[in-house]
From TrEMBL, chains A, B:
The lineage of its organism: Eukaryota, Metazoa, Chordata, Craniata, Vertebrata. Gene3D superfamilies: Trafficking protein particle complex subunit 3 (3.30.1380.20). InterPro entries: NO_sig/Golgi_transp_ligand-bd (IPR024096), TRAPP_component (IPR007194), TRAPPC6/Trs33 (IPR037992). PANTHER family: TRAFFICKING PROTEIN PARTICLE COMPLEX SUBUNIT 6B. CDD domains: TRAPPC6A_Trs33 (cd14944). GO terms for cellular component: cis-Golgi network; endoplasmic reticulum; trans-Golgi network; TRAPP complex. Keywords: Endoplasmic reticulum, Golgi apparatus, Neurogenesis. Component of a transport protein particle (TRAPP) complex that may function in specific stages of inter-organelle traffic. Specifically involved in the early development of neural circuitry, likely by controlling the frequency and amplitude of intracellular calcium transients implicated in the regulation of neuron differentiation and survival. Its main location: endoplasmic reticulum. Coiled coil: none annotated. GO terms for biological process: endoplasmic reticulum to Golgi vesicle-mediated transport; nervous system development. It is found in: Endoplasmic reticulum; Golgi apparatus, cis-Golgi network. This is Trafficking protein particle complex subunit 6B. Belongs to the TRAPP small subunits family. BET3 subfamily.
Length: 157, 157
């Protein structure tokens, strides 16, 4: 409980700070991209520790399952609720109660703020995958809060 | 282990980001004060959750003991090693292996960077105390890494 709260509060503070620090025309875009980059580096660091004693992964799907179960649980205290793939390099990770959105009110008028609350996590997933040798583009989308979907597009090298 | 790492990585990212965002003459001072303010708000939020089911504190010393034991353990996974007071409103909290300094190399040439790594925690303590009705000024000092002392000066109202 305590750890959860610490992460959540810190995450909100970062969003607020970056949001106020990045001023200019494309402020919103820059804020999101800064958060994404921050998430990327944290994801790289975390996955390195988490997989220290993990046996080698069989394939891409095996890596994705690890992200959905072990990685998600250690960061967000729950697993991803649903993982889908088209078996052609696109994976959709659905979290029905995404922890970093539960602080936001569910009203539709807040939907426009959702990207700021998802950017760090998109980066987190991209960074974790990157350190496992999987290059990807990660985007997120919210339809009804606090549920959201992360789409991972694997970049073939 | 995972939670610890998440907090540590996030904390480093914030320092780096704020450090690069705050440019100008008094950049170092502003960076430290931004971090302190961030810690203050996080401390306020955290203590509210931690003390939800805690009985009322007897006195100031009782509050300080709670900070040194329960609060410190939940954030830093260890207790404060030594608590001293002059019984006139000054408390010194010593942590012999402060978690947010263990990432820094122990060389003396890195001592000048220590304030950035302590500012958030100074604010954290000040925020927690503030929400418990104790107004204070919190400063920190490092002599030999990764040991450090936090000095709490109670402000009588």
């Amino acid at each position: 409980m305590a750890d959860e709260a610490l992460f959540q509060f810190l995450h909100s503070e970062i969003i607020q700070y970056i949001n106020s620090a990045e001023t200019g025309e494309s402020e919103n875009g820059r804020c999101v991209s800064k958060l994404e980059n921050m998430g990327f580096r944290v994801g790289q660091g975390l996955i390195e520790r988490f997989t220290k004693d993990t046996p080698r992964f069989k394939d891409e799907l095996d890596v994705m399952k690890f992200i959905c179960k072990d990685f998600w649980t250690s960061v967000f205290k729950k697993q991803i609720d649903n993982l889908r793939t088209n078996h052609q390099g696109i994976y959709v990770l659905q979290d029905n109660k995404f922890r970093l959105l539960t602080q936001l009110s569910a009203g539709k008028q807040y939907l426009e703020h959702a990207p700021k609350f998802l950017a760090f996590t998109c980066g987190l997933v991209r960074g974790a995958l990157s350190n496992l040798g999987v290059k990807s583009i990660v985007t997120a989308e919210v339809s009804v809060m606090p549920a959201c979907k992360f789409q991972v597009m694997i970049q073939k090298i």
